[in-house]
Amino acid sequence: METIETAFDLNLLHVLAALDRSGNVSRAADALGMSQSGFSTALARLRTRFGDQLFVRTANGMEPTPRARQMIETAHAVLSQVQEGILAPPVFDPATSHTEFRLAMADVAEIVFMPRLLRHLQTHAPFSRVSCGPMLTPQLVDAMEAGSVDLALGYFPDLGAQAFFHQRLYTHTYACMMRSDHPLVGSRLTEKTYAAAGHAVVSSPSRSTVLFEQFLQNRGIERRIVLTTPHHLSLPAILAQSDLIATVPLAAGARFAELGGIELVRLPFKPPSFAVQQNWHRLFNQEPRNRWLRQQVALLFNDATDEWIEIENRLYGKELRQRSFPDRGVGKTPVLRRTEKS
User: Fold this and answer.
1) Is residue 46 part of a domain?
2) Pairing outcome for strands 151-154 and 129-133
3) Is the dihedral of CA 311, 312, 313, 317 positive or negative?
4) Given its phi and psi angles, is residue 200 left (phi above 0), alpha (psi -120 to 50 degrees) or beta?
5) pLDDT tens digits for 161-183?
6) Residues 107 and 159 grouped into a single domain
7) Within this chain, do residues 259 and 283 fall inside the same structural domain, yes or no?
């Protein structure tokens, strides 16, 4: 079957359009950056291909024949579509776009990311909206590939396939929290008192929760679990009315402590650290909208803007960050990592 490439040279559409606009061979040739002889040759090819003069010299210049008029309208439309839909680079204007940014994160990550991100978007993308929620890894992979999730924010070690890009924002760790007048407040926790205390444990799909559970198992620490709940956000109310304690990512604990009635306490061991990242599918790596969103996230959340580092240092000292990530000091630019070469 004959293809469009061998049947017709689409570049000849420019000849039709230019001669229609100018009505003069010389001016049309100049507009296309062609010599007059080259333009005349191209016009001759068109006349031979369609068996029609297409343009005839008149007192008003080169006038199109009825066959040419029929072709010219389509030629202008095709060239415009090619320019706008193929040749012109895609653009995203956050100031006017009514887009929806779709994020995947655990509820504990929302406490960290959403307040600052929403304030920023209200200024720089005032017509945008945000949707977010947790997802198990298999569903998240499919959703990000389909474009129904733009970014996964937080700790997602399972997104290590070749299809994903990862940018580290900063590192994070854990702390213990309890009510401000808890009997253990003011005394230094030991592993024995920590294990013996009643614990409220979050059973969310968050991978940072799994990381800490594995850490305790490797260390041989078995807690006395009194309550298991799927939500971090209920912990402050629960702890305020009981002698239970809970171990949470430090940023979440700091937010809860700001509300009052909750005390953030040093764990009786050096807790593990994990990299907080933004993750995206490589299908959307060059999409302007996705790129803009990633730039805003990296601007807002990085080592230099890590508002929890002072709390971490107060609880554990600077050696915790240095021990966990010795080559990623505070203040450095976020590291972009990908799992496959372009």
Assistant:
1) yes
2) unpaired
3) positive
4) beta
5) 689 999 999 999 999 999 999 99
6) yes
7) no
Q: What is the number of structural domains in the chain?
A: 3
State the residue range of the domain holding 206: 174-265
* Residue pLDDT, tens place only, 131-160: 998 777 789 999 999 999 999 999 998 887
Residue where a domain stops, chosen among 55, 87, 119: 87
Phi then psi for residue 339, to 5 deg, are -100, 0
Tell me, yes or no, whether 318 lies in a domain. yes
Rounded distance between C-alpha atoms, residue 342 and residue 339, angstroms: 10
In a domain, 77, yes or no: yes
Q: Residue 23: which CATH number?
A: 1.10.10.10
In the chain, alpha helices (H) = 4-7, 12-22, 25-32, 36-50, 66-82, 107-124, 137-146, 191-196, 207-219, 235-240, 250-258, 288-300, 309-316, 319-324
Whether the CB-CB separation of 280 and 143 falls below 8 Å is answered with: no
Q: How far apart are the first and last CA of the chain?
A: 35
Query: Both 160 and 303 in a single domain?
Result: yes
Report the predicted TM-score, pTM, of the whole model to 2 decimal places.
0.73
Identity of the amino acid at 236? P
| Domain assignment present for 94 | no
Distance, CA of 127 to CA of 124 (rounded, Å): 9
The alpha carbon of residue 202 and the mean position of all alpha carbons in its chain are separated, in whole angstroms, by: 27
In the numeric block, the tokens 């040749």 are attached to 87
Report the range out of 52-61, 86-95, 117-126, 197-206 with the highest average pLDDT: 117-126
Would you place residue 329 in the very low, low, confident or very high pLDDT band (cuts 50, 70, 90)? very low
Distance, CA of 127 to CA of 98 (rounded, Å): 5
Residues 153 and 292 occupy one common structural domain: yes
What are the backbone angles phi and psi of residue 202, rounded to the nearest 5°? -95, 125
The enclosing domain of 241 has a CATH number of 3.40.190.10
- Using alpha carbons only, how large is the chain's radius of gyration in Å? 31
- 3-state percent helix, strand, coil for the chain, nearest multiple of 5: 45, 20, 35
